[in-house]
Design goal:
The protein has a single domain (about 5-225), classed as 3-Layer(aba) Sandwich (Rossmann fold), CATH 3.40.50.150. A hairpin with a 4-residue loop joins strand 6 and strand 7. Helix 3 packs across helix 4 (about 60-65) and helix 7 runs antiparallel to helix 8. It has a seven-stranded mixed beta sheet with strand order 3-2-1-4-5-7-6, with helices on both faces. The protein has nine helices and seven strands, in the order αααβαβαββαβαααββ. About 45% of the residues lie in helices and about 20% in strands.
């Protein structure tokens, strides 16, 4: 099974329990992470936002609270998008099923792109970032919220125990999908050891790249800008 097919199957499978598990397994701190990431993105009511790997819409919904008027959600999982539609009265007509590598929008369409916990699921991260660069307006910003392995040895040990032992057990009990919550720690470990976000963003054309670790370094917010020409 290739990565695209695997990711779609997993997220289609757990869509009905996704929000519950997100909040439960993070102790609710995922809500703070999204709000902080949006503040760092400097998003405002004039922003035109593309939320990639939008899932059930939590990032986009937080952006809407900040008075952002134009928001498009994009995700590979149709079931996740259906949940998004059930949660709002404005997302219908503003979501699209697509992969990040081939976002179906014209050049220079958006001022902001956000991705929460989705980059590690892309099957070609560099190609995705090149597409982000293409559809962003000059001066536009991409904001990535993603897990990382903490640098502190004590925090790292606790984090790995939780991710490898506790999280898969709770996830399996609630979602009845064993693969989904073994995939998460495996994907975080592979992502952290093999993926250099700064280099990939730079290779795609972005500059002014800043990394902001949150909560003892277990997550990171990476903000990168498309330069004016």
């Amino acid at each position: 099974m290739n990565k695209k097919t695997q990711v779609k199957r997993i997220f289609d499978s757990i869509s009905n329990r996704y929000d519950l598990l997100n909040h439960l397994l993070s102790g609710g701190i995922d809500i703070y992470w999204r709000k902080k990431a949006l503040r760092l993105s400097r998003i405002n009511e004039t922003s035109v936002l593309l939320d990639v790997a939008c899932g059930t819409g939590d990032f986009a919904i937080e952006a809407k609270k900040l008075k952002v008027k134009t928001i498009i959600g994009a995700d590979l999982s149709l079931n996740m998008l259906r949940i998004f539609n059930k949660k709002t009265n404005w997302s219908k007509g503003n979501i699209v099923q697509t992969v990040a590598e081939k976002v179906p929008f014209k050049n220079n369409s958006f001022t902001n792109i956000t991705v929460a916990f989705g980059v590690r699921n892309f099957y070609d991260i560099l190609e995705s970032f090149r597409n982000f660069y293409r559809v962003l307006k000059p001066g536009g910003t991409v904001t990535i919220l993603e897990f990382r392995l903490p640098k502190n040895k004590f925090v790292r040990s606790f984090y790995l125990f939780y991710f490898n032992k506790i999280l898969p057990l709770i996830g399996r009990i609630i979602s009845s999908d064993k693969e989904a919550y073994t995939y998460l720690p495996e994907s975080v470990d592979a992502f952290d050891s093999k993926v250099d976000l700064w280099k990939l963003l730079n290779d795609a054309g972005f500059n002014k790249i800043n990394n902001h670790p949150l909560t003892f370094g277990i997550v990171q917010v990476v903000v990168a800008s498309k330069q004016f020409k």
